[in-house]
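dumping this here before i forget
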Amino acid sequence: MSFTDLMAGPPPTNLPVDPAVAELDGGSAPAAVVRNHPASPAAWAALAEQAVEQGADDVTVYAYSRVGYHRSLDMLRRNGWKGHGPVPWEHESNRGFLTCLALLAKAARAIGETDEWERCSTFLRETSATAADELLDA
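structure:
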């Protein structure tokens, strides 16, 4: 007889391979990749990261990362995520979502949206402590 551990949390959610990653790795511009793959968390994360690197206004970074975050939530739900539980940084395909969430948190803090910073940074830490350590504490 087997028993279900009622105290265990939900299983980790691992997103499928994101086809945008190959284009990004091949040197395609993030804006072009977003046009080819508008639902891609990795594409939106790359666009937001590029905006940071180029010194774009924090509102621009906030907008790109928010779009990526919301597209990520749609994808997570389609892959069994129930609104909570681990989304491991160690699974490469999860990194677009986690990066968007971290960039959204940082941009929210930069524009003075403290509640959003706290919500997003807490959500990131609860979803993947490794990602929070890698992306927020760096």
